[in-house]
Amino acid sequence: MRHTRHRSPESSEPTADPDARWLGPVVHLAFYALLGGSLVRYLLRHPPGPGVTWVVVSAALLALLYALGPVAGPARGRDRPASRPLVWLVAVVAAWSVLTVLAPSFAWCAAPLLILALRSLPAGAAIPLACLLTVLVVVSLQRLSDGFDPAVLVTPPAVAALMTGVFLHMERQAERRRALIEDLLRTRRDLAATERREGALAERARLSMEIHDTLAQGLSSQKMLLQAADRVWESDPAAAREHVREAARGAGRDLAEARRFVHDLAPADLADGGSLLAALRRLAERGTKDGLTVRHHIEGVPLPLPERGEAALLRVAQGALANVRQHAGATRAAVTLSYLDDQVVLDVADDGRGFDPGALPAPGREGGHGLPAMRARVAQLGGTLTVESAPGEGTVLTASIPLTPPEPR
Length: 409
Known about the structure:
62% of the residues lie in helices and 9% in strands.
């Protein structure tokens, strides 16, 4: 990753980095402490005179110039031009250099200036400035020594190199960490968007199944009843009126289904604490019309089912009987609910014309929604749906779900 420190005016220093908050004040305090200590050391070793006055004035000007840093200086901000920290830092380094030439004791102030240079400038400019500061420190300390001191020649460059290397390494690590955080935030946003899309698709699938199993099936049944009434309107007015009344009752049930569907409640037959057994009985009674006889019976000991399981089995029974009326040409149908040890099984059998299960139309075509919707509904509860049929041999639809279905995801 390419190392850089300058940011565009639109970006700002990350506010979540605690190091950026405490490093600046520590550097400023260290600079003023070293500046004051160097001035005290100089005054203790030099008698009053014009030279001392110039040093004191220069030190005061350097302190004042450095104090402008928080306003003009190295803290990179959203509304601060990139050239201003460089101008301020050059001015401070120049004033310090002049002061160091006058009084070598002020060479110790180079350490915080080096940190400021590394914080404020890119590596290409900070490293040459660090070299210049090191040279001035070496020269100044040699002037303070009685003679040539090899330690003074080696120690400042070694310390400066160590500080520069550690600081640049930490900066690169911080850049990598910021990039990683940005990647994680971007990934989290993408994941949230994906989850929203998947949720929307799942909701669309649920809505399509609900509409098919309730409103579409009910409207189809009412259409058949009204067509039957129209056929016998002249020959058998009583039967025609009964068909119309049955269609009206079906419209009322579908209206209740639509209202509960909008509020995402249970099927109308299961509302107000209704049981699945009673709902299947009413469904069979309503299904006995137009020459179709529907029987229902229970096998095993009824066990309590979750509301989602009861709703799914009732929807499957509704859809299966609707298919029998519309497509099978059957005279008899049977709805059987069997309670086994670990699952409950719903069978809907008819004596109609049958069909080839392998030749079912694809979802989206006429008649192609019912079985896929039933299979998806049962699969959501960890169950299975099978269809056994052959031309001329009737059809048996079997839906089985475990008594303890998995929690919804």
